[in-house]
Amino acid sequence: MGSNGRSTNGKSQPLYATRIDLSSEIRTKVIAILNHSLASTLDLKTQVKQAHWNVKGLQFYQLHELFDEMASELEEYVDMVAERVTALGGLAVGTARTAASQSILSEYPFDILDGKDHVIALAERYAAYGKLVRESIDATDELGDADTADLYTEISRDIDKRLWFLEAHLQTSVEEGVAAAVSEVAESKAKKTAKRTK
Ligand SMILES: [Fe+2]
Questions:
Q1: 3-state secondary structure (DSSP) of residue 6
Q2: Residue 188 pLDDT
Q3: What is the pLDDT, as a whole number, of residue 191?
Q4: What are the tens digits of pLDDT across the range 96-155?
Q5: What pLDDT sits at residue 6?
Q6: What distance in Å separates the CA atoms of residue 150 and residue 141, rounded to the nearest whole number?
């Protein structure tokens, strides 16, 4: 620990002293998970804004509004995740450059216009981000930080709900929805059978 109340955690990032009852080893690991997801959260927020500005077509207005609501939610998650980093004594790394270099998401397509294409592009990104958040719940839970796991659980529930909103725009016929559900049930049955026969 330096005289300024900070130590380095072996990498270049400082770990500040705190009276919190989580060890510095646990805090360092949780902070790394948080900063990793912060980059993708920031990236997703800017991508949703990109869709909000550029969507066109007959559903323009409702999608323009929906995307703005979704971007505002993501802005809240950015703050929640970054402030959990600082609560644990870490340095929140949330600049645009870090987000661009560390996000798990691919760049948003610039050549789409129609509402449906934007909904598909966002659904793909919400699914990928949702997977990352769910993995972060498990990882922080295993490290013994129930509060960070709970923070991720809150985000995860909302991301799943938004993915539902997006996919509801794409499920245009009962047959389509039922076919997808049936194939999913068949897939999970096959997985269970494969497990049993191992
Ligand atoms: Fe706007």
A1: strand
A2: 76
A3: 76
A4: 999 999 999 999 999 999 999 999 999 999 999 999 999 999 999 999 999 999 999 999
A5: 43
A6: 9
> What local confidence, expressed as pLDDT, does residue 9 receive?
39
| Residue 66 CA to ligand 1 centre (angstroms) | 11
Copy the structure tokens of residue 52: 């909000």
Distance CA 169, CA 146 (A): 35
Separation of CA 79 and ligand 1 centre (Å)? 20
Domains delineated in the chain = 24-173 (1.20.1260.10)
76 C-alpha vs ligand 1 centroid, how far in Å? 16
- What is the rounded distance in angstroms from the CA atom of residue 168 to the CA atom of residue 99? 29
**What separation in Å is there between the alpha carbon of 156 and the centre of ligand 1?**
25
Cα–ligand 1 centroid distance for 137 (angstroms): 32
Q: Phi and psi dihedrals of 122, rounded to 5? A: -75, -40
Find the 71 Cα to ligand 1 centroid distance in Å.
10
From 18, 184, 12, select the one nearest 87 (Cα to Cα). 18
